[in-house]
Amino acid sequence: VAFINRDRMQRYLDAGVVTPAQAALVGYPKLDGLVTGRLDGAAVRRSLGLEAHRATALYAPTYSPASSLHLAGEAIVAGLAAAGCNVIGKLHDRSLDPDPRYTASIDWRGRMRALERPGRIAYVEGPDAGPCLAAADLMVTDDSSVGVGYLVLDRPLLGFDAAGLPEAARINP
């Protein structure tokens, strides 16, 4: 059984869920491209048509009607662009799910596409956030796990405090 960190592996070992012979500490392979530099941030920005001379901010919120997306997502994207940044909007896939538990019946795909501006604001879909992380000079998120992945780059991360999110998303403090 592959584990991303020693703490999680130890909890499974302590609980008797796996034996030491079954447990392997493998890290977080989906971040390998960031750590090794295999993902070319400049190439990603070019592929999105973003202006090369501007800093690029990534907005990647978690899914929940209590998330920053619902509280201020459009204003965050507009504010980053107004501050002179290119902006990549990368929503959690659940924010695109029509189930109102995740979206409060809001068409986030449509709203994000309405914010797009050629050369300045790009909306990205897909399961792999790695290319977006590589392209970003700065990231804004609330409690999305991609924020943890971004930390391997040692670049600025701004956390939006969505006060009701920990309870709504049952986030372990």
Topology:
Blueprint: E1 2-3, H1 6-14, E2 24-25, H2 32-36, H3 41-47, E3 56-59, H4 68-82, E4 86-90, H5 100-103, H6 108-115, E5 121-124, H7 130-135, E6 138-141, H8 145-150, E7 157-159, H9 165-168
Parallel strand pairs: 1-2, 3-4, 3-6, 4-5, 6-7
Offer a quick outline of the entry:
With 173 residues, the protein is of the alpha/beta class.
Give the total of beta strands.
7
How much of the polypeptide forms β-strand, as a percent range?
Answer: 5-15%
Q: What oligomerization state is this entry in? A: single chain
Question: Would you list the SSEs in sequence order as H and E?
Answer: EHEHHEHEHHEHEHEH
Strand order of the largest sheet: 5-4-3-6-7
**End-to-end distance, in Å?**
26 Å
How many helices? The count is: 9
Helical residue percent band? 25-40%
Main beta sheet strand tally, sense and closure: 5 strands, parallel
Structural class: alpha/beta
How does this structure look, described?
The strands form two sheets. This protein has a five-stranded parallel beta sheet. It has a two-stranded parallel ribbon with strand order 1-2. It is α/β, with parallel strands linked by helices. It starts with a strand and ends in a 5-residue tail after the last helix. Strand 3, helix 4 (68-82) and strand 4 form a beta-alpha-beta unit. The protein is built from nine helices and seven strands, in the order E-H-E-H-H-E-H-E-H-H-E-H-E-H-E-H. The chain has helices spanning 6-14, 32-36, 41-47, 68-82, 100-103, 108-115, 130-135, 145-150, 165-168; strands at 2-3, 24-25, 56-59, 86-90, 121-124, 138-141, 157-159.
